[in-house]
Amino acid sequence: MLLVLSEAAHDYLLTLTSGASNSGPLTPAGLTAQLNSDEDLIRLWLDGETIFEGIGKSQAIAVVSESAGKGGGTPIPFVAVSASSDGGIKASFTPDSGGVKIECEIEIVRLDTDVFNRVQGIFDTGLLRPKTVAIIGLGSGGSLVALELAKSGVGNFVLVDFDRLHAHNISRHACGLSDVGRYKTRAVRDKILQHNPQAQVICHEVDVTEANELLCQVVVDSDLVVAATDSEVSRYMINEECLQAGVPAVYGGAYERAFAGEVVRVIPDQGGCYACVRQGMARVVRSVSADQVFDYTEDTEDNDTFQAEPGLGMDVGFIAMIQAKVALMTLLRNENSQVGDIEAQMVVWTNTPRPEDGKLFSEPMARYFINVPKSPDCVACGELAES
Known about the structure:
With 387 residues, the protein is an alpha/beta fold. The chain is 26% helix and 22% strand.
């Protein structure tokens, strides 16, 4: 039997067992114990902790002192705990009235040292703890980016999306059936906290195209904006707000059926902005076949929003992972890390070859780095904007 408990629960039990008498239960108020008999697993945590939320099929069990477990009247099944000779605690599990006692292996979840242990050495995760990342759009791409940044140690998130999760979303979304009907922001928040329980997450269920003041505040309060929305209007609005506030932004999106996609990074006053990229890439993007559902270069009402269409989750995932990595690179710029950085403003990734659309899309699993200079006649950052 494996007993997994939070560090806070361990310290709490250690205090109680150290002062426990040889008779009577510990009766630990504020402690939750759940048994999953199918997996020979018991988990303990304190009330208010989110560390083990959504643990699946389980039942509540009692926790008592070892001496109390030897007497009668203790609810069965139960866990008996006592102080160990090494200064910690030890535990045994009694599953039924037959008197069989199963010694428990103990694993303590120490958030500060364990959760990001496999990241240490690549960079100091403490660098990301004070950072705030706004993720606007929590669909297939945005949800994956959010989780990867959470797993990398980002400490603060602002999630913005007005939509709810539907059954047809889950084949490509980070969330699953248990979250259908929920706001995407709240569902992704809970996923973030499963990987980074100490993260602070603020949710806004709004359409940023109808909440300009909120968008402005979200941008100003952030160190980085991840734009994963499905409309060009929202992207242009994000672009303008980020330029004004001097906040870098990383945009990501998939082309038709996710056969390819792009990630665009805009750092104010360093190269072109998102509008410059769209203008400069017009000829390249037009090489995509005419039956593409969405064409970035056409600012028409019908094409303002990407239409839901077939596409593999893994293909969307490649693009989202690149967006997440570029976001991480941006957060760690000028810091001591092994993550590195790229000089290009734009990454085009091809999942499935479509040579009929040009050389850019002729090879599978191919990427291209593209630099787009600032356009003098850009209405967002060029001379027209400054005049």
